Amino acid sequence: MFFRTMIVSILAATWALPVVGADENSTSQGEDANALGPNAEVATNSGNIAEVIITAEKRASTLQDTPVSIIAMSGDSLQERGTPSLAALAQGTPGVSLKSEGPSQTEIEMRGMTSSGGNSATVGFYLDDIPLTGPASAQNGHVVIDPDLYDLNRIEILRGPQGTLFGSGSMGGTVRLITNQPNLSQFRSTIESALSGTDGGGFNHKDNLMVNLPLIEDTLALRVVGTEDHTSGWIDRIVADPFPLAAGNPVGTVRGDVQDAPIEKRYPGSNAYQIYAARVTLLWKPTESLSVTPSFFHESSNQSGISAYDSVPGTEAHYQPFDIAEPQTDSLTAYSLNVNYSFPTFDVTSSTARWTRNSTQVEEASEAFNNPLEGITYSSNYGLPNPGYYGPGGSGPEHGMEDDPSHQFSEELRLTSTGKGRADWAAGLYYSNFYSLWGFKGTTPNYSSYMDLGTLAPATTPNWFDAYSPTTLKQYAVFADTTYALTDELKVDVGARVNRYNYRFSSCISGWGSGNGASTPSCSGLIPLSSTSFDPKFNLSYTFSPDLMTYATVASGFRPGGGNAVYPTTGAAWAAAFQQQGYTSGKWPSTYEPDRVLSYELGEKARLLDRRLTVNASIYYEDWRHVQLEAYPNDWALNINGNYVSIYGADIDVRADLGAGLQLEVAAGYLYEWLEGGPHWVIAPIHKLPEVAPESGTVALSYFKPIGGSYAFTARLENSYTGPRYSIFFSNPYEFTGTYRQLPGYDLINIRAGVKFRETWSATVFVNNLTNKHAQLESMFTENEPQPDFTRVVTNQPLTAGVDLTYRY
Q: Coil, helix or strand for 14?
């Protein structure tokens, strides 16, 4: 009832808004500019399409003057679009794909370079100058935090290898979130509240606050930003009693009729989550040349359950035989200190940062453990009747908990020219020390009903799987990049980075469900690895006119190698899996090598029709060698090296001022990839990588009309499309490594309309996911036993409508 009432109110308010007049010259100048234009950006030109000042090459330039394939969006534009998170922005950015199981659980990929294998991401992620490395071994991937985008100066999404300036982990691209810095001369404050309702869920509310305080005029200022975000869930968690047993031929291939089973308990909105975040930045500028900026950032999230439903029966629900919740928590605290000193011809900047993070996740798998095809219960292995979930021989409840603490210290010292003369350059030193400790504990109270995989006798301990994997990665780097103007039109950019890494890894697995059973832990011992990489970049650009530039780039990137846990190679299950993957050495590989990419790109940036039309396009080829792949022998994760991946693709971004207050944006990307996985790669289809959408794109139409001299009406209609892609499934119990199944493509439509009053307030109504699309985002890999008769599918938020209120003073 609440949801229907809100929809009716929003539609009525939208149709009641007046539409009169037009002003095509309204612009914005930075974070404190007060504009009514449809795309307020940091820098503007004489036309109606604004530009953004970026620092993608470690020195300032405009988006159109930088010969790099990049998406840049100002904080004002993010607020106008109502972009709530990085995940939402990435879904509509061509060449960018992601997978996410909830808040702060987002893994980003660019241009087909998936992060599924290895211990490092393929996309770098920065909050200002803080490199935020994802966990090394988390089962949900190399996930990064997904901070609220309130009070940002801009976002920069750099496509293609960025190894020269941003190091390892940026072989596919880099995402940079640049915050607004304190204003030394003016008190400023803003407040925002977004209230909404979700179909199948409930009431959502998000509140943001920013306060800028000049403490000593022109010398010392403090900026404080706070966020509170509650999103109601839309997945029901249902406990059935009695729980129907699996059926089919053989028994276990068909799930029981859970939809019609008696309901013991129902938990609506079981995937609801709550986020709190705070950012505090102090700017001290004792002289014109020196600035000191310490900052603090903290974000914590708590989600009641995973945003995933059971593929069978396919409703927005998860069915369980026992009442076991699956909460996820994540907490990150970051401290940084930036010191900048300006000399007459160059700047010196020191960026020091330290962050700590801890993530936890609970997974329940009682139904999977009872499935006779899994061969886990003692009775199922010896032809005895299936014991069911209850009774004297019942298997009982089962769950596992993942704990993933990590922390990192980093320091970058760089020198950058001030842009005078024909040469423009940046150079520096970098050091980071990363530590991650992945741990997992599985518990089965009724353990005597299970079979110890080592002794083949009934288990004698409740611990079915205990694992921990500490990882340490130290990196040392020196880098330099120089742009030289050979003529006024022709520029050459040459850069290189020498990176040395020292890696330490160990793993120990025990419990009756481990490969060797409870009596013999599988421990790898210390695995040390070291390597040095050289990442060059060469870029040639030619400016035909102030409105037309072409460029060609050859660039490289790399990721460090790593170590694997120890798995058995003999026994009924492991011998078959070992044989299937074609190893002859008598053991699984204990390590995997670094992988690297060499990228070739041609691009152009053009402004046409008196700068009312902007067209930026690029074509590229990625040659990815020794690609790190994640295999799943017996559904356990194992990193191996494939031979190579060839990726061909193109991106195009178009913005057009149509006149009469209308502006059109079209962005599209396409790529084709071919994986040659080598003799040990057996996941079918063997020439495909997971979580990569070949086609993606966004079309948006925005509208701006002034109302008199003080008010303005704004509206935006946006449609984002993500094409079909593959995700891992374990639907066939006789497959030792799983298979890739293609998920259907989907599009999401958002609409916004609102009124602004000068620089003081705005009120906007919105409907996200207008067509109520229930997209299949990914198949969820579980550290617990995968289920052969159904899988869990991560999905998006259903139709959500609300109002966004902002006030500045």
A: helix
Residue 374 vs residues 368, 655, 800: alpha-carbon distances, Å: 7, 54, 40
Closest Cα partner for 95 from 617, 539, 751?
Answer: 617
Which tokens go with 543?
Answer: 């400016």
Q: Give the helix ranges, DSSP H, for 64-118.
A: 75-81, 86-91
The two three-digit tokens of residue 94, written as one number: 């061509």
Nearest CA-CA partner of 168 in 138, 123, 198, 135? 123
The secondary structure element, H or E, covering residue 576 is helix 574-580
Per residue in 494-543, pLDDT (tens digit) is 999 999 999 999 999 999 988 888 888 999 999 999 999 999 999 999 99
CA quadruple 87, 89, 92, 95: dihedral, nearest 10: -80
By DSSP bridging, strand 273-284 and strand 490-505 are unpaired
pLDDT in tens, 137-150: 666 566 777 777 89
The pLDDT assigned to 101 comes to 64
Alpha-helix residue ranges (DSSP H) falling in 110-239: 163-166
Alpha carbon distance 230, 261 (integer Å): 32
Closest CA to 577 of 640, 658, 632: 632
Quick one: which of 735, 660, 728, 658 has its CA closest to 700?
658
C-alpha torsion 11→206→719→128, nearest 10: 150
d(CA 469, CA 408): 17
Beta carbons of 664 and 56 less than 8 angstroms apart: no
With contact defined as beta carbons under 8 Å apart, do 250 and 373 qualify?
yes
Mean pLDDT of 593-604: 96
What are the pLDDT digits (tens) for 682-728?
999 999 999 899 999 999 999 999 998 899 999 999 999 999 999 98
Rg (CA), the chain: 27
Please list, in sequence order, all residues whose beta carbon lies within 8 angstroms of the beta carbon of residue 734, skipping any fewer than 6 positions away: none
Quote the pLDDT of residue 90: 74
Dihedrals phi, psi of 628, to nearest 5 degrees: -80, 125
The token pair that represents 794 in the structure block: 């991560």
CA–CA gap between residue 86 and residue 104 (Å, rounded): 10
For CA atoms 386, 389, 395, 399, the dihedral sign is positive
3-state secondary structure of 12: helix
SS3 assignment for 148-165? CCCCEEEEEEEECCCHHH
H/E stretch holding 9 reads helix 2-16
User: Residue written as tokens 């061509």?
Assistant: 94
Lowest-pLDDT choice from 20-24, 44-48, 358-362, 416-420: 20-24
Show Cβ contacts of residue 227 under 8 Å, excluding neighbours closer than 6 positions: 148, 150, 206, 207, 208, 209, 275, 276, 277, 278
The pLDDT tens digits for 600-645 are 999 999 999 999 999 999 999 999 999 999 998 888 889 999 999 9
Amino acid at site 501:
Y
Contact present, 437 and 404 (Cβ < 8 Å): yes
Cβ neighbours of residue 162 under 8 Å, at least 6 residues apart? 124, 170, 171, 173, 174, 555, 557
Query: Of all helices (H) and strands (E), which one includes residue 378?
Result: helix 378-381
**Who has greater pLDDT, 210 or 381?**
210
Tell me if 662 sits within 8 A of 630, measured CB to CB. no
pLDDT at 45 (0 to 100): 39
Place of tokens 């067209």: 615
DSSP state of 392: T
- Whether 663 shows a pLDDT value over 80: the answer reads yes
pLDDT (0 to 100) of residue 302 = 95
- Tens of pLDDT, residues 223-263: 999 999 999 999 999 999 889 988 888 888 899 999 999 99
Cα separation of 69 and 539, whole Å?
A: 12
